[in-house]
Amino acid sequence: MVNLFFGRGGVLYRRRDLYARVPVGGAHLAAWKSVFNLSELSGANLIGNLLFSSIGFVAFIYGKRLSLWKPMFGGLALMVMPYFMGDTAMMYGAGALGTCALFFLRE
User: Fold this and answer.
1) Is 3 helix (H, G, I), strand (E, B) or coil?
2) 3-class DSSP string for 28-97
3) Quick one: how far is CA 11 from the chain centroid?
4) What digits encode the pLDDT tens for the residues 91-103?
5) Of 45, 31, 32, 25, the residue nearest 89 (C-alpha)
6) Which conformational region is residue 106 in: left (phi greater than 0), alpha (psi within -120 to 50 degrees), or beta?
7) Burial level of 90, CB count in 10 A (0-12/13-18/19+)?
8) Given a cut of 50, is residue 18 above it in pLDDT?
9) The pLDDT value given to residue 15
10) CA torsion 97→99→102→103, rounded to 10°?
């Protein structure tokens, strides 16, 4: 079994045994970091990610069970949105706007 973990400076390592550290990644890891903005992992960012993804999941399941497309796609957008937001304040603003849209645009 291969365990992956982040070491110093955000470098991804593969733990083969207790003492050997083999760096993994390169250009493709840098590309993923730029897409998903892995550099900002503050507590507020993680809590907002969990909060808006949970609201989106509930809305998605609600829309799927009742065959309503507005809550289903709105919930899907709320689940995916935090992964592409770079700024924590912008993520909270877009999440609050998306949550209000789910509430006011329901059928």
Assistant:
1) strand
2) HHHHHHHHHCCCCCCHHHHHHHHHHHHHHHHHHHHHHHHCCHHHHHHHHHHHHHHHHCCCHHHHHHHHHH
3) 20
4) 999 999 999 999 9
5) 45
6) beta
7) exposed
8) no
9) 57
10) -100
- The neighbouring-strand residues paired with 23 are 13
Rg (CA), the chain: 18
**Model pTM?**
0.62
Tokens standing for 34?
Answer: 């730029």
Q: Which two tokens stand for residue 80?
A: 């995916």
Cα gap 60→51, rounded to integer Å = 14
Contact (CB, 8 A) for 53 and 79: yes
Phi, psi (degrees; rounded to nearest 5) at 106: -75, 165
Token pair in block for residue 97: 């706007």
